[in-house]
Design goal:
This protein is mainly beta. It contains 2 helices and 26 strands. 4% of the residues lie in helices and 42% in strands. Strands 1, 2, 3, 4, 5, 6, 7, 8, 9, 10, 11 and 12 form a 12-stranded mixed beta sheet that branches. A 6-stranded mixed beta barrel has the order 13-17-14-16-15-18. A 3-stranded antiparallel beta sheet has the order 22-19-26, with no helix packed on it.
């Protein structure tokens, strides 16, 4: 089997050399913490991967794809996927771009990449693949960044690996980044039901009966298992669901169609908000095929887990829905703080109001304003404050981790 290697040496002025010490998935720590790096050139201490890392092991000084069976997630491509989330690194001053160095071994049919994201205005930007040794633009200047490693291979291909990861600030980048908009992007796309109970999603989540999450066709907006820092609002027929992005698909895996063409990973000639699968199905784009050469059988741009599809949105068939990609813009937010399942969204500020949607565990919800209503006791204490998360839709603040918001 042919092994293709790409190597970039670490530059002497690097502000952060991320020495990787990786445990097996069963012993991964719950949090990676933050490494503070002074403005002067200095080597950072050894770092460990954070929560959500899955199917990766330490092989000498390399992060290598683990042996877990191929996932059966939304995209329908039988691949083994490994994710290693590295600790956050704080630079001495905000930087507009980051130069990432690494070495990768990619057997034919496999792939390895290092992604970067930044904390801007208290929220993480989406993940952006970094070209080794070249500046990667951040959405806005930031002094706190995080790297992650993605290694992927079919079941019968040797495991790809990554080593020698480093990061240093840069003044400019060769390509633009997705800026944070005043309001997150909304697009109308075709939604299909994922199903696949018992299968494994791209972030390592094992799908349960009537689960609550969604799949989008790019890892740029893929949240860690159990996290909702990349969430969407999906609305149709007077109902809305707030769900974390825990899988990749349907059809493609590099179609971040919510991004403008300047930074869209593939299909740059398509308008922002239009999935490649939709263009292929409706207009014969790319010969009517997806990224993997499969004939596209429907125009889907999002997959919905069964609980989202049947219970939150009350769908019985695939349908066109309005999707808000919450991480792409500013605005009030809160995080659903429940141990499992979902939170009901009601049309009044009391527990007898009609259920008009649901919010999955760990999902982010939009918060337009707050008002008062029935006193509720939940994970955040006892309160009579209710949050309006959409026109005519409310959740009790007792179950939402958030700050104070303007009165309705």
């Amino acid at each position: 089997m042919r092994i293709k290697l790409s190597r970039r040496s670490t530059q002497a002025a690097a502000l952060a050399v991320l020495a990787l010490a990786l445990a097996t998935p069963a012993t991964l720590p719950s949090s990676a913490g933050t490494t503070d790096v002074p403005a002067s050139a200095a080597q950072s201490p050894a770092l460990t991967p954070g929560a959500g890392s899955s199917n990766v092991v330490l092989d000498g000084d390399r992060i290598i794809l683990g042996a877990a069976r191929a996932s059966a997630g939304s995209a329908g491509i039988r691949q083994r996927t490994g994710i290693a989330n590295l600790a956050e690194t704080r630079f001495g001053t905000p930087t507009a771009a980051v130069v990432v160095g690494f070495t990768a071994g990619t057997p034919e049919g496999g792939s390895a990449e290092v992604d970067v994201r930044a904390l801007v205005n208290g929220r993480w930007t989406e993940w952006t693949p970094a070209a080794a040794g070249e500046p990667t633009a951040l959405a806005a200047p930031s002094d706190l960044v995080q790297l992650r490693i993605i290694v992927v291979a079919p079941a019968n291909v040797a495991s790809p690996w990554v080593s020698g990861v480093s990061a240093r600030p840069a003044a400019t980048a060769n390509a633009p980044a997705m800026g944070i908009m005043a309001a997150p992007l909304v697009s109308r796309v075709y939604a299909t039901r994922e199903g696949l109970v018992g299968g494994t999603t791209a972030n390592g989540h094992v799908i349960i009966n009537r689960d609550h999450f969604v799949a989008l066709p790019s890892r740029r907006g893929l949240a860690n298992n159990g996290s909702g820092n990349y969430s969407v609002k999906v609305c149709v027929g007077g109902r809305c669901a707030f769900e974390p992005v825990w899988d990749v698909g349907p059809w493609n895996t590099k179609d971040d169609y919510w991004n403008p063409s300047s930074i869209r990973e593939m299909w740059k000639d398509l308008p922002q908000g239009r999935p490649e699968a939709q263009a292929a199905y409706q207009n014969g784009y790319n010969g009517g095929k997806d990224q993997f050469g499969r004939t596209v059988a429907n125009p889907a741009g999002i997959d919905l887990a069964d609980g989202t599809f049947w219970d939150a949105l009350k769908l019985s068939n695939n349908a066109w829905v309005d999707v808000t990609y919450l991480w792409t813009g500013d605005g009030g937010r809160g995080t659903v703080s429940i141990s499992s399942g979902y939170l009901n969204v009601r049309n009044a500020t009391n527990s007898t109001g009609a259920i008009v949607g649901m919010a999955g565990k760990s999902a982010q919800v939009t918060v337009e304003c707050q008002t008062t209503g029935q006193s509720i006791t939940g994970s955040q204490g006892t309160t009579n404050v209710w949050l309006r998360v959409h026109a005519g839709m409310y959740v009790s603040k007792a179950w939402i981790n958030t700050g104070t918001h303007p009165a309705c």
